Structure formats: structure tokens, C-alpha cells
């Protein structure tokens, strides 16, 4: 039976799958061959498109058509997710070895649009570069008193959880799965890595809730994962310990995991944040993180599951007076000694930078330093530090820079990420999915870069624009989004120094907000200069964690790239950047420019009023007002702070308070 | 029937009413004369003391004794609260016109102890200087998601409210009332001035909860007041407006108030925070605060009630870039034009300083500027900005300075406070009542200063020590407490500048925490100097709100007292104080001294281990560790901040980070 296409609730934005996305397919004659659940998904999609646009679809026919499109299982050797596409003699043919490949092939045809049905195409094989393309949802089942339902969520409540349990009506979860499949995502973790009391029980007596979600996502090729508490044997099992080397603990995890697979046969595995920011972990028992990860890996191994073990381990009770500790060093210092000790089905999940998703960080040196460990790289699609989905900040260029960075000799980050690419989701039950309608572009871009890390992000952006908005406003949208990350960087913390944000919620400026905190996030600004000395020669030694050539490049303020200067060095305000400007004048200039660029983007958006759906246009226009207010606040606080400290006037005499 | 003395739950500290407080009375022969509920309270007290200490008590006997103590109603002209005390021929006699006076007389005898029963005493009359001596509890009925149950409470949950309603067992409320009566407090407002949805209903369908509390407090001479929402006619009455000049609104308040008095015949009246920090008020209808206050005054007038209208009105959405607005000016600017327009039973409740209970502020100029208005002065016993009952900070000297300040020619603040003295309570359901056992001294001192504003605070302190701890540790306790406010001032924000605290919760240092906020609390530190210019000549003009001689004294940095210098002036770090020190060296010196003084106080406390009850000693010793940690954090943040800004090294080469 063809699977019906999910019906969006009234008022919910279709994002990059409006009906028009399948106009070209829907007007044609399609033959589908093969069997299996995902073939039914493909059939349902084509049938719905034909219903709208007048084409027709035939299943497993023995005749030769004529057909405009043939979608079929059959080819070997493409893996579960690959497909081939060819066009010959007026017929476009997609062939796959497995159902997921066929679905991805269909979405590929959708992206091509009319171009899929013109001319000839020689056979080409498409395969994802990374086998795991995963979203981590930081969703709580119960609303958390401080963090709300979705931790670092800026798009309403959870798509999965409502009133303390899985949503009864999972139609929107199905629609979400469909959107994710259309950009290539194939795994989801459905709850927050900070596992609170209610959420801990998802592993055991509430696994049925997870199974329901898994059931809704499965037809879109998405496997479901779960964040678990390392202390589960204590919390849920009544054991006196959670020691990973304890026999009873191992038995408890084995049995708990067996029951999980009983409920969800294709369950993906566990995600664990251990010994981090208050979460329990193996340190309590004098065990290593490899011991901890391998405990869960052993429980998952018989069923083909994977444990994602986060490398975000650092001392969050640091003393700002102690300059010998450097949080940036922590992940490397903790994990590199463990290389080779993780089980094959344990994936070490590493944030792309050494700190925490700032607008600008160097690539984490851990990524190139564990050749005998499967690493996954974690990005943050939710805009915690990049405007919280009230600011336009399309992160494609940043992620592309990260993924293309040659962290090892001969290997980019994208290539080192053998465990996959993971991102913290930015979606919720907001009508636009992502709060800011243009933040959809981040979700889409993440999926497409996970499929192909070396894709041109600008081309991905244009693809998203074309699917979501059609050709009318494309040039304007491209102008608004393409440079928005660099614009955001300009009006916020300068030159890689990071963390000049309001404590706790992280929205808006507070230059000294974390300067005397226990969080290890300092800038050391004084009347003479600013920045963190992380050199080997005179600083924390963090620069020495890199291989060649980066250790040398970052070691000296002369060779360090401007945009990371204050991350690696404490320099005087008079220090000259490669650009020829002094640091202080760079700060002033970028902050004035950043606000001007927001004003310009707002004006471009205003000009699109007749080319964009009114609801979308209105929401974005409203948010631009907030972005502009906030950008001015950033500009004025940062400039005032550094003017008060340095005493250096702006070379152009602009207003600083 | 004599009223039984309340029984403290196991483990609850007896504070300043341990059994020994009535040892002298309890061992003697006492005659009680008169009738009425408070006479029964007196009788119960004496009977309980006699039960413990072997004396006896007789009621309304016609014989002549002999009696050691005669407590009797009878004298005229002492008012409801006054009493006379005399001793002649071996008999001590307390005479009062009303029950409260008799109860206060008994507590006075208790404070005198054995001295009440030796030698002769000529008749002396005791009367409170202020008719209203009130505590405002900022207690919520329902636990507030951010503020907890007691807003700015540091002593556990509410004494009055539990699980969303009045406590069923009011024995501890009775014990609280007894403690308050023993230091002279005669009124309580039982809920937060920020009136949330649940608490708004106390006025109407939940008045029974308030009546129960009033019933428990009445035998101790304490009248109960209620904080109400100005929007009550909308919220509770279903009216379309809360306009104070609207007839239906006036009728609604009249009827609501009538019902309140039906439930609580001696109800004290309403407390209102209007048009302040988000609370509703008359501004919404284009009416004045006199219109607002008089609306409620009119409803209360037939029943003898009073409305306390808070003068804490300012713009809390200020722009830090706008130097023309000065929050310190706000109360004066709002209210002085209304002088003479408030009803006789409306009391304008004015915080003692122009800002918000900082460790050092000038006296509010509003206090001397409204001769035709009944003003009450508001203090904050709860230590929001003075260590949150984790630090020892006895506020007696500060309050005494405030109350004795000659704000008007010929009138001190204590004399101008014709509407009474009010304080935000620091008590909760903590076993020690106030979290920090030594914070009890603040509650006691407040009551005694409200009775007699010109009392020597050191003598009040010794009185509290003697009652609470007995003579053994008295010298040590005096040493620990007497200078503790100045010690706290030394290690926190310097020279009156205020508000260098962590935003939101207000515990611990954050020099720039409010510097770029909308709250109007700035210090304007730059690399050259620090402080707020509030002069008439070059600043906000706030200094001009004072009468003579203060306007002139504060106008010039040369005549402004050192301790308020940065409140009134922006000066360079090299500015020389009256003390001869530069501002920057003063900052360094006081911060090192402050920590040393905490260390010394901790050591004194440690030496009292054999002289103090173990539970009290342990709690205080633990808290001293936190105070010391926090004081060092304050010292190091403040010193580092100003060293980084000024570049001036410490003259003594001490460690600054």
C-alpha cells in the first residue's frame, strides 16, 4: 500500500517541500518497481504528486510504457543509500539497491525539477560521503524549569513530546521525517543530552513512547536514537553502582538494551553526555571514558547499535584566577590518550571547535588526533550563539570551512569524520519549524553537507531557495542569506575571542558576562590589550595540540589568521592585523559595518514583499526589527567597552557611548 | 483563659525567646489585672514561665499580695501600646491602657531580667515613637518559577504558605508573632508586593486563608495587611477597567473591602506596588498615583484601614546610552508634585535610599520633601544586596545612620517617617528562622529601632545577644557583628557606587553586570575614572533634589562624604579622598581589609565553640566558609577589574589577578 504523504496542520509552513517541489514528477508517467516499506513511501509521494498535477503512476508493470520516469530497486552494490540516475530515450531512470536509496533518488529528481526530464543524462551514481547524518534533539519530555522544553530551542515546543509524553498525533513528526529525508538526514536522537529524571525513563518503562516516534520516522529512512543517563543502573535499576566494569551493571545494560530492541528492532543506539556540566559519568568510579563508552557499546553490539559518546568534557568549575587551566585544551587532553581503546561501535562525538559553537572558533585539534577512533563531528544548527533564530545567520559557509579544513595531512575534517556528522536540531512546533523562516536554510544545508561535505554551500543555498521560495525572490534571498554569518560575526565578539554574551541564555552582548565565571571562557581585556594567549611559548600551550602546519601557524601572532587572532593571542589594541588595521580600529569598523549590513539586508527583504508568501514575509520583517535593535546594542556595548578600556578614539569619529 | 505559649517544632531555634528569657519572671509571684485577649496572652506567658521556674501567677486577686510583679490594665492616656514601669517596696508594676501595652511591658520586664526585681525604680512611661512598625513579607502562595516561594528570601519557604494555601498548622506562625511582639513589631503584610495570579485571589475568594493567619497573629498585637494588585477589578471583578476614577471600579473596591473586613475585623489595610517593574497601576488610565492610592484609601476608610502605596516607581526599561535619565531621581520626580493630594489614610512608602537597598546609599531626598503626606520609610531586613544571609552583615548601624539623618531642618528621617517604619522580612521556615542564625539580629534590631529610632544600635545588639545567647559568648558575638556591615561594604562595591552584583539573583560580584542593562544602575568606569555625576552643574541634577545643606554638600566632590563619592561624582582614579588616599588605592585597600576582617571574624567565631549551642555554631561556621570564599571572589574581581582598567599597581604590591 502506498504510504500517504503526511498532511500538514493548517498554517504550518511546507518549508522545502511545497507541492510545487514535485510538479515536474507529478505531471508525468511514472513506473515504480520493487517492494519494501520505503518503496511504498516513494509510491505515496509520486501518487500524491500525480493527483495534484495530472500525471499517473504504475506499480511493477510488465509493459514498457512509455514512462517518463522509472524508479526501481534492482541494482547491486550501491549500498542501502546510494542510487544511480540516468536519462535515455525520453525515460529518466533511478535505480537503487535499497529503499532509502530509492527515496533519496526520488528527492533528487524533485530537486532537478524539469531538468530531470529534458535531454539525455549519462548514468551517474550518488552516494552519501558519510554513513551517519544525524540530528540530536535537545528536547525534554517534561518542561524544564530553566531550559524550557527544548534546551537551546528557539522554535516553540518539541515536535515529539507534549504534556509529558509522546504526541498522540504523529502526523507532524511524519512530515518532519519527510523534510529531513529530502535533505539526506538518516538518524535522530529524540531527547536532550542532559537527561533529567523524566527523560531517563524513556530507556525503560517509557520506551513505548520512543517506539511510536521511531514508527513515524522509519518510512523516511530515519533511525531513532536515545540520549541516556550514564547513571541509569542507579536511577532506574536500583543498583548500588553504575561502575562500567561492574558485572551487574553490564548485565543491567545488556538486558535494558535487549528490551529496547524488542520495542524498536532498528533502534540506532545511545547518545551520552557523561562527566560534563554535571552529568554523571565513569570518572565517579575511577574509570576512563573508553570504559564508559565500551560498556554501552557492548550492550548495543549484538543488535547492531552504536553509542555516541560526546567528547564535551571539561572543568566547568574553573577559577578565573587560575591561568594554567585552558578549557580549549580539555577535549584533547581527556581523549587523545584513549585513542584505540574505543569499541568499533563506539563513536566519539566531537564539537567542531574546542569551545562551544561560537561564531568563530578554530577547528578542534582532537579531530585530527585520534586515527584509531571513529569520530563524529558535531555542529550546532540551533543558533544558540548565533542569534537564536531571531537573527538571520546562515551557517553554511562556516560549516563548509570547517568540513573542508585540512586538519590532518591529506584529510579534511569531513574526511576524518568517519563516525558521521551530527548536529543539534533547530526545529520545534513553531509554524515555520525553525522560528525564523530563514533558519530553515540551516537545517537544510546541514543535511546536504552531511551527504556531501565538499558541496559548494552557495549552491546548496540556492537549491533551498529554489525549492522553498521558487525563482521569484531568489536573488534577494541569496543576498540576504549568503553573507549573514560574516555580518553576525562583525557585530558580535571580535577576532575569534568569543563568549561576550549574556550568561545563562546567551542572547545579546555582555562583554564581561563570562570574564570572572567558572566556565573557562575569558578574554582578559585590560587597558592595553585583549585576547587569550594559547601559544606554547608563553601561553596555555593549546596551539601545540595541532599537527603541522597548524601548530606553527597558530603559534605566532604574525602568522595566525586575523579572524582567530584573539583566540590564540593576547595583543595590544595597536597591534596591526594582516588587513593593515589596528585591532581597536578593526573592532570599531566591523561593528559599524555589521549594523549597516543588517540594515541593508532588512531593506532587501522589504523589497521582496510581493514575491514572498505574506505570512513568511511578515515574520521575517518583524524579526529583522529585533535583529537590528540587537545588532545596534552589540555594536554600542562592544565599542563602548573597548573605548572605555583603550581610550583610543574611532578614526572616523563615529558615535561611541 | 490564658493563651498557651506556642510550642516550637523540634529543632526550631528559639531565637531571642528561649525559656531563660523569662527566668526572672518565672521564679516570682505575679498578679495580672484586667481583661481582654492580650491580657490572656500575657497570662499565658507568665504561667508558662512559672511552670518552668517555680513561681506563681494570680489573676485579678483582691488581696495585696505580696507580689513581686503586678501587670495590670488601668492607666489612661498611654495609648494602646504604651506602658509605665515602676518598682517600689519590693513590687514591680507595669501598667498599661491597652492589651498591647501590657504585652510590651511584659517583654520589657523580660529584657530587664533580674534587674527588674532589684532596687527601686521611679515610674517611667514607654511609648513607641512610631505607631506603625511593620514587616512586609515578599511571600508567594504558589512557588514562583524564578523567584521561588519567598522573593528575595534566604531562609527557606514561607512561614505562612505551603502547597498553595495557608498552612493548616499555624503554631509556628503564632511563635513568629510572639517573637515579633517581643521586639515591638505590630503589623505584617503576608504576601509579595509583586502580586501574581494566585496571590491576587487572597483579596476575594481566598480571604479565609488570610483570616486564619490574622487569627494566629492577633494575640500578639499584630495586625494583618495584604498586598493587592491594582488590576484586581479586571483580574477578579471582570470589569473592563481598573481606572481609579471609574465609578464601578470604586464600587468594586468598596465591596471587596467590606468583605475583607467581614472576615478580618481588625484588618490593617493594603500594600500596593503600582506602575513598578511591570506591576499594573494608574498610569495606564492617565491617572496620578494620588488618584490610585486614594481609590483604595476611600475603600478602607470606613473600616479604619490604611493603604501603603510604594514610591518605588522608575523606568526599568532605560537605555544605558541615554545619560539624561537618572533612576535615582525617579521617586522624587514622580511623587513630590503630588504632595498634599493623598488621603489621610494613605501612606506613601519610601525606600530609605533612592536606588534599591544597596550597602551604601544616600538617604532618599523624597523623605524630606513631602510635608503634607504621611510617609513610611522602608528598610530591607532581608539581605538581598548584603550577603543574602550567607554573610554576616548586621545592618543596625546603617539603619541607625539613616533614621538619625537630618533630612529636613530640625527633623531626622525617623521623625519624618510619620507613616511608620516598614521592612522587608528576612524570615522563613528555616530552623533558624533567618537562614544565617546571626541574621536574627537584623530582624530584632529592626523592631527595636522602629519602636525607638534614636536607640543606640550597639545597645540593641547587646540586648539581642544577651537574650539569645546569654552572657557567655557576648563579647565575641559583639565583635563578630558590630562592624560586619562596614566589613561587607569594604569588600563589595566601593564608595557608594552600588550594583556591581550578578544580575537577577544579586549574589556575588559582577562589576559590569548591570552596566549596559535597562535597569538604570551604572558606574561608568573607564580607564581614567569611575562614578556617576549626579551634580546639578554637570550631571543628572539629582543632588539638587535635597534641601539645605545637603544639596550643597553633595554637589561638590570636595565636600561630598567619601563613602558616597562615587554615587554623586565621576572622578579619576587619582582623585584624593578626605582620607588622603587615592580612589584606586582606597579600592585596593578596602578590599584586602574586608577579606582580612572576615577571616578575623571567622576566627573569633571558631573560638566560641564551647560557648554556643552546637547547631548554631555549626551553621554559622559553615556559612563563614562561604562568606570568606565570596569575599575573596569580591576582592579579586573588583581589584582585577579596576587594575585592568586603571593600570595603577597596588602601592603595597599585593596580588591582583
From TrEMBL, chains A, B:
<protein>
    <submittedName>
        <fullName>Alpha-glucuronidase</fullName>
    </submittedName>
</protein>
<dbReference type="Pfam" id="PF07488">
    <property type="entry name" value="Glyco_hydro_67M"/>
</dbReference>
<dbReference type="InterPro" id="IPR011099">
    <property type="entry name" value="Glyco_hydro_67_C"/>
</dbReference>
<dbReference type="InterPro" id="IPR011100">
    <property type="entry name" value="Glyco_hydro_67_cat"/>
</dbReference>
<dbReference type="InterPro" id="IPR017853">
    <property type="entry name" value="GH"/>
</dbReference>
<feature type="domain" description="Glycosyl hydrolase family 67 C-terminal">
    <location>
        <begin position="434"/>
        <end position="654"/>
    </location>
</feature>
<dbReference type="InterPro" id="IPR029018">
    <property type="entry name" value="Hex-like_dom2"/>
</dbReference>
<feature type="domain" description="Glycosyl hydrolase family 67 catalytic">
    <location>
        <begin position="123"/>
        <end position="408"/>
    </location>
</feature>
<dbReference type="Pfam" id="PF07477">
    <property type="entry name" value="Glyco_hydro_67C"/>
</dbReference>
<dbReference type="InterPro" id="IPR037054">
    <property type="entry name" value="A-glucoronidase_C_sf"/>
</dbReference>
<keyword id="KW-0378">Hydrolase</keyword>
Amino acid at each position: 500500500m502506498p504510504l500517504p504523504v503526511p498532511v500538514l496542520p493548517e498554517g504550518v509552513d511546507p518549508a522545502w517541500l511545497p507541492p510545487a517541489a514535485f510538479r515536474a514528477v507529478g505531471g508525468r508517467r511514472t513506473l515504480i518497481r520493487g517492494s519494501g516499506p520505503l518503496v511504498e513511501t516513494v509510491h505515496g509521494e509520486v501518487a500524491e504528486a500525480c493527483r495534484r498535477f495530472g500525471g499517473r503512476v504504475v506499480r511493477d508493470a510488465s509493459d514498457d510504457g512509455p514512462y517518463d520516469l522509472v524508479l526501481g530497486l534492482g541494482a547491486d552494490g550501491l549500498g542501502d543509500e546510494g542510487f544511480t540516475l540516468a536519462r535515455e530515450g525520453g525515460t529518466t531512470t533511478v535505480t537503487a539497491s535499497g529503499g532509502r536509496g530509492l527515496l533519496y533518488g526520488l528527492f533528487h529528481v524533485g530537486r532537478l525539477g524539469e531538468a530531470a526530464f529534458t535531454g539525455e543524462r549519462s548514468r551517474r551514481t550518488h552516494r552519501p560521503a558519510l554513513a551517519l547524518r544525524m540530528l540530536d534533539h535537545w528536547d525534554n519530555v517534561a518542561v524544564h524549569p530553566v531550559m524550557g522544553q527544548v534546551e537551546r530551542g528557539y522554535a516553540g515546543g518539541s515536535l515529539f513530546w507534549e504534556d509529558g509524553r509522546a504526541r498522540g498525533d504523529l502526523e507532524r513528526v511524519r512530515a518532519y521525517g519527510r523534510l529531513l529525508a529530502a535533505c539526506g538526514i538518516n538518524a535522530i536522537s529524540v531527547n536532550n543530552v542532559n537527561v533529567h529524571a523524566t527523560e531517563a525513563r524513556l530507556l525503560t518503562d517509557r520506551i513505548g513512547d520512543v517506539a511510536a516516534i521511531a514508527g513515524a520516522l522509519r518510512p523516511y529512512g530515519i533511525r531513532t536514537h536515545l540520549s541516556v543517563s550514564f547513571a541509569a543502573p542507579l536511577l532506574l535499576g536500583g543498583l548500588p553502582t553504575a561502575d562500567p566494569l561492574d558485572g551487574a551493571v553490564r548485565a543491567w545494560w545488556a538486558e535494558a538494551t535487549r528490551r529496547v530492541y524488542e520495542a524498536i528492532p532498528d533502534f540506532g543506539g545511545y547518545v551520552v553526555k557523561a562527566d560534563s556540566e554535571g552529568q554523571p559519568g565513569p570518572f565517579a568510579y575511577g574509570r576512563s571514558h573508553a570504559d564508559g563508552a565500551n560498556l554501552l557499546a557492548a550492550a548495543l553490539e549484538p543488535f547492531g547499535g552504536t553509542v555516541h559518546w560526546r567528547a564535551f568534557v571539561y572543568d566547568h568549575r574553573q577559577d578565573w584566577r587560575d591561568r594554567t587551566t585552558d578549557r580549549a585544551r580539555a577535549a584533547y587532553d581527556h581523549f587523545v590518550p584513549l585513542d584505540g581503546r574505543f569499541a568499533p561501535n563506539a563513536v566519539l562525538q566531537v564539537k567542531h571547535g574546542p569551545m562551544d559553537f561560537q561564531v568563530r572558533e578554530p577547528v578542534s585539534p582532537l579531530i585530527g588526533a585520534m586515527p584509531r577512533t571513529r569520530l563524529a563531528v558535531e555542529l550546532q544548527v540551533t543558533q544558540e550563539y548565533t542569534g537564536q533564530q531571531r537573527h538571520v545567520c546562515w551557517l553554511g559557509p562556516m560549516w563548509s570551512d570547517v568540513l573542508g579544513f585540512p586538519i590532518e595531512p591529506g584529510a579534511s575534517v569531513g574526511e576524518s569524520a568517519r563516525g558521521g556528522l551530527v548536529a543539534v536540531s533547530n526545529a520545534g512546533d513553531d509554524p515555520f519549524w525553525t522560528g525564523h523562516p530563514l533558519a530553515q536554510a540551516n537545517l537544510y544545508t546541514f543535511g546536504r553537507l552531511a551527504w556531501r561535505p565538499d558541496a559548494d554551500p552557495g549552491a546548496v543555498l540556492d537549491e533551498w531557495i529554489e525549492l522553498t521560495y521558487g525563482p521569484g525572490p531568489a536573488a534577494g534571498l541569496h543576498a540576504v542569506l549568503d553573507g549573514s554569518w560574516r555580518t553576525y560575526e562583525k557585530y558580535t565578539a571580535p577576532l575569534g575571542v568569543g563568549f561576550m554574551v549574556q550568561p545563562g541564555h546567551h542572547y545579546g552582548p555582555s562583554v564581561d558576562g563570562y570574564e570572572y565565571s567558572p566556565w573557562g571562557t575569558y578574554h582578559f581585556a585590560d587597558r592595553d590589550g585583549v585576547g587569550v594567549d594559547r601559544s606554547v611559548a608563553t601561553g596555555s600551550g593549546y596551539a601545540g595540540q595541532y599537527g603541522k602546519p597548524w601548530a606553527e601557524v597558530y603559534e605566532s601572532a604574525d602568522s595566525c589568521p586575523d579572524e582567530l587572532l584573539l583566540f590564540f593571542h593576547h595583543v595590544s589594541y595597536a597591534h596591526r592585523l594582516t588587513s593593515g588595521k589596528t585591532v581597536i580600529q578593526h573592532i570599531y569598523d566591523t561593528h559599524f559595518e555589521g549594523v549597516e549590513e543588517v540594515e541593508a539586508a532588512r531593506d532587501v527583504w522589504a523589497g521582496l514583499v510581493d514575491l514572498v508568501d505574506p505570512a513568511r514575509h511578515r515574520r521575517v520583517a518583524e524579526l529583522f526589527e529585533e535583529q537590528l535593535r540587537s545588532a545596534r546594542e552589540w555594536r554600542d556595548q562592544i565599542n563602548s567597552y573597548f573605548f572605555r578600556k583603550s581610550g583610543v578614539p574611532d578614526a572616523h569619529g563615529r558615535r561611541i557611548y
